[in-house]
Amino acid sequence: INLPSDLIFLLSASSPMMSKDSTDTGKENRPIQENRVPSLLAGAREGDFNKVDRLVRLQGVPVDAQEYENTPTALMYAAVSGDVDVIAFLVGAGADVNKCDKDGRRPLTFAATNNRVAALQYLLENGADPNLRNRNGWTALYIAAAKGYVEVANALFAFQQSPSDVNVRNTVGGTPLIIASTLGHTALVALLLENHAAVDAVDNNNWTALLKASDKGHTDIVNLLLNNGADVNHTDNNDFAALLLAAKAGKADTVHALLAHSAVLVNRVDKSSRTALFYAAQNGHTEVVQALLSRSDVEIGIEDKNKQSARTITKCPEIVLLLENYKAN
Question: In CATH, what number is assigned to the domain containing residue 83?
């Protein structure tokens, strides 16, 4: 599937880098305590308690030392490995649980990204703020939704002292429900809805979770969203509704699920005056055409702005026959 750019950033950033940025001029990323800081970071990454203890307690390496300015700390590396003993030692030694690197990543978001539930719980209990964001506006809950990590999301919801914002929006307006629906994480969608996620929240392109799930053909999620009151006829900035998107993409099961909803407008048109039937016919999706023609109220003669209809646009003989038979009857 085509992933949003911010999701690509997330998936490529599960573990912090220890190397200097190739664009560094040496002014902003200055080596600090060159000999010992990398050893501390390596010890935290490897879960080597004795090494971390020795370097911090006996050799005096600052607990929040960074190899270069604005790069990950030992606590961030420990969150990646999930070693709670190392995390507890670092926190006890004064590590900043909310410190971030140049990308806005923090110990809690590293724990969430790597599905380290125990580490995440410890960090929450020791002052980590679950609603702080990375450079793309992602919180720990948003990351859990994107990755499909139900246990991480459950841990975040269970921590009532600092509730996670279930409807947090990232820099392009997406919410945890929208990203989970896009990527097909059914259990996560159910959990978010149970925790009062806004079912019809929209991103910057006016896409809802239902539009995303319909476009991708995640039928179980489509049914979940509809059962929780999603607007079946909501349209994006191009006037695409869920039925048009599913029909255009050839997602027959999803089309059936949407047609089962009594309120769906089967003849709704987008900005080009094209219907779900038009797109299904144009793209040769025979099963989708059959599903749409099962509706007695479907209109087969609607023309788009180029005066083309489902019948004139299709190049599929089977679909031509289906449309001719429907017209005759």
Answer: 1.25.40.20
